[in-house]
Amino acid sequence: MPQKNQTLGEFIIENQSSFKYTSGELSRLINSIRLAAKVVNHEVNKAGLVDIIGTAGDTNIQGEDQQKLDVYANEKFIRTLTKRNIVCGIASEEEDDFIAINSQDKNNQNKYVVLIDPLDGSSNIDVNVSVGTIFSIYRRVTPLGTPVTKEDFLQKGSEQVAAGYIVYGTSTMIVYTTGCGVNGFTLNPAIGTFYLSHPNMQFPLDGKIYSVNEGNYIHFPQGVKNYIKYCQMEEGDRPYTSRYIGSLVSDFHRNMIKGGIYMYPKSSKSSNGKLRLLYECNPMAFIAEQANGKASDGFNRILDIEPTELHQRVPFICGSKNMVEKAEEFIQKADN
Ligand SMILES: O=P(O)(O)OC[C@H]1O[C@](O)(COP(=O)(O)O)[C@@H](O)[C@@H]1O
Ligand SMILES: [Mg+2]
Ligand SMILES: [Mg+2]
């Protein structure tokens, strides 16, 4: 059992041996993400003071207006990972296509690719509500020393070797898994060190919180509507409480600690929902399952979905296992 209050650096070294592909490379990669997280955290904490709020004037490939902090965080993570020559490829919500890192260099023996959502919850940046960063790590499938290809990124979520998120909230935390459980580390801003504050995080099997943008209710499939009504009924331990921050990372984090379900279903407005499979749903699904939770699109396990596009979207339901299974029951019943 991890020792509470050990530093993230100590934890990474100590747990290196529990990782099946141990070579130190993944440890160095997690350390680089830790560094970039501190740089971005520094800027996030000043949102409102410095010229970091508002739109950057461009749109990303998804047609969304990029916020200045989206662009800033994207640059910092890509720069930190590239400068440390620790990966052979990066894909990001804010980049149209994947970026090959020195991969044409025959000597490039880096075997990991990283997919990131540099700033999650962009609509909350300007209003001082918690936001996050999400990352997903795979071993490349193409030979070392050859240029990375789309194939290296379009892997099923079940192939992830590590995944995590940073939440910039009342405190700043890194929460991640390498397939041996989920641990959370809180930043002590006075000394810039992350300490293990939440060892072996677990989703309660059941909860009393549901998180969904009910503003889209009329556009939801009947099964989703029925489940929301079920959450609101005066019966047994219901009604549940509705909590929706509008930042996936923050809603997920709260639900993992207190028990709850987060849903971004498909709707008549968006046939595949809003969230991106590769750098939002897969990493959160890996963490959820490692914390005894569950993640599906209403029918299929998220981690079994075969990706086809870098920025593809999927309906996403994630959280306490019994709650997700109840939601699936309503969705599948209404679909028949
Ligand atoms: O405003 P909506 O439609 O409810 O969407 C909110 C959801 O969209 C997101 O902001 C999408 O993520 P980005 O901010 O990274 O684009 C999620 O964090 C959040 O859960
Ligand atoms: Mg996001
Ligand atoms: Mg984002």
Automatic annotation (TrEMBL):
Positions of the Fructose-1-6-bisphosphatase class I N-terminal domain: 7-199
Subcellular location: Cytoplasm
Recorded catalytic activity of this chain's protein: beta-D-fructose 1,6-bisphosphate + H2O = beta-D-fructose 6-phosphate + phosphate
Predominant localisation class: cytoplasm
EC number: 3.1.3.11
Gene3D superfamilies assigned: 3.40.190.80, Fructose-1,6-Bisphosphatase, subunit A, domain 1 (3.30.540.10)
A biological process from GO: gluconeogenesis
One term under GO cellular component: cytosol
Binding-site residues for Mg(2+) 2, renumbered to this chain: 117, 120, 280
Residue sites binding substrate per the record: 120-123, 213, 244, 274
Pathway annotation: Carbohydrate biosynthesis; Calvin cycle
Cofactor annotation comment: Binds 2 magnesium ions per subunit.
Taxonomy, superkingdom: Bacteria
Residues involved in Mg(2+) 1 binding: 93, 117, 119
Domain Fructose-1-6-bisphosphatase class 1 C-terminal residue range list: 205-331
Cofactor dependency: Mg(2+)
GO molecular function list: fructose 1,6-bisphosphate 1-phosphatase activity; magnesium ion binding
PROSITE patterns associated with the record: FBPASE
Keywords tagged on the record: Carbohydrate metabolism, Cytoplasm, Hydrolase, Magnesium, Metal-binding
Matching NCBIfam families: PRK09293.1-1, PRK09293.1-3
Subunit annotation: Homotetramer.
Family: Belongs to the FBPase class 1 family.
Protein name listed in UniProt: Fructose-1,6-bisphosphatase class 1
Organism: Oceanihabitans sediminis
